[in-house]
Amino acid sequence: MSLLDTIAGRAEAGTLYGIGVGPGDVRYLTLRAAGLVRSVDVVGFFAKRGLEGNARRIVAPLMDASRHELRLEYPVTEEVPVADAAYQAEIAAFYRRAAESIAAHLQAGRSVGLLSEGDPFFYGSFMHMWRRLDRDFPVEVVPGVTGMSGCWTQANVPITWGDDILSVLPGTLAEDVLCDRLQRCEAAVIMKVGRNLPKVKRAVTGAGLLARALYVERGTMDGQRIVPLSACDDERGPYFSMVLIPGQGRQL
Amino acid sequence: MSLLDTIAGRAEAGTLYGIGVGPGDVRYLTLRAAGLVRSVDVVGFFAKRGLEGNARRIVAPLMDASRHELRLEYPVTEEVPVADAAYQAEIAAFYRRAAESIAAHLQAGRSVGLLSEGDPFFYGSFMHMWRRLDRDFPVEVVPGVTGMSGCWTQANVPITWGDDILSVLPGTLAEDVLCDRLQRCEAAVIMKVGRNLPKVKRAVTGAGLLARALYVERGTMDGQRIVPLSACDDERGPYFSMVLIPGQGRQL
User: Fold this and answer.
1) Hey, what domains does chain B have and what are their CATH numbers?
2) Which of A66, A107, A149, A205 is in Cβ range 3.0-4.6 Å of B143 for a Cys bridge?
3) A196 to chain B nearest CA, in Å?
4) Chain A 154-193, CB below 8 Å of chain B: which residues?
5) Rounded mean pLDDT of B126-145?
6) pTM, whole model, 2 decimals?
């Protein structure tokens, strides 16, 4: 057994693992995450209908046909706004069923590793399983490299220097809220850009930050694209897209 | 060669690697970081006089006596405030000499891996080498799990839900600035707590957030300590200490 395998360790029976799989490149899984992906009895992941699942695609080089997979497929909600009560009820019911199917494996003594893009406790859907299962089962959460770290690394820009304050803003916020918060930032990351891209660009422009803003699509993955936000006029970005505004703090 | 070693890959001649070594537990190095720590010709790291060096300690299980190490020792500046011009000049001269010693190895065709706690482009001292060497040498930056991800994982608290805004605030900021920014946060992480601990606690209290605040010392490392900030009256924390204020956003 190699030193890396020894350090990575293996899964224990009846335990739920929230496995951060990092920003996209399989090399950015942690040793612990890689050890668990290869040793849990059941590899669970969320996916949209008809798609492979982003987290599942990231770990593909670590998988083989003998592994037991638990695909948790989101209900089709593409056209319903997130704030809608019907949407929220439907997603909550889906999460409840997903937690029940995971619990059944755990009760049977099987270990379950639930894949989470980036870091599980940072806007991760794993959190919705954690809050339903943490009291009743042993749970280990494995932190991961966040999508934003992957993106600023690929853009080759340090994000915070010295005493810079960093704000992480969901692109789902209203334009005036985004614009107001951006005006109080030294450095910023805007997540969940996707279909909010034109609004995000208007907010960044309104805050006087367009000249410093970078748009990153599919950072660390195939098809990566990094351009100044000023040069991006797309009507929407893919799921993996964000805007970076690097800080300009003390450089010694 | 094991699958993990194959994915991790090896270093190339004459290349500078900025290696994020994560929050403290060696299992939280990425595969790429672990592969590079074991294959670069020179393992470089910053350290304070008389101490092992935090990043060097994290990778100890991956090292052996045959490796060539480059210890970059900070000048003794313990009693001089960071804002002081003399301090800044001394640190800048130190970084210049450190970059020269790294450049000499690179020019001789040796690969150099500079260890960086957490993520290299997130408040990392590697950034001071990167800006001096990136134009003249091939550089690869390897993102890492941040210290804050390690801390909220160990504290077993998701940090951001739904549309929560996260602010990352250096504890070195003035108390009134900290307090003002905290009042505009849904979720917050206060870094660089150390000797700023009493000031940070006053600012959190002033912002009305004391009941939600957690104090984390040496997260993911030996000697880890996690307590409500309200229960911590220490005059100063160690280098690895931070305050977490978890978000309370949408939980479906």
Assistant:
1) 3-145 (3.40.1010.10), 148-245 (3.30.950.10)
2) A149
3) 13
4) 156-170, 172-173, 181, 184
5) 98
6) 0.96
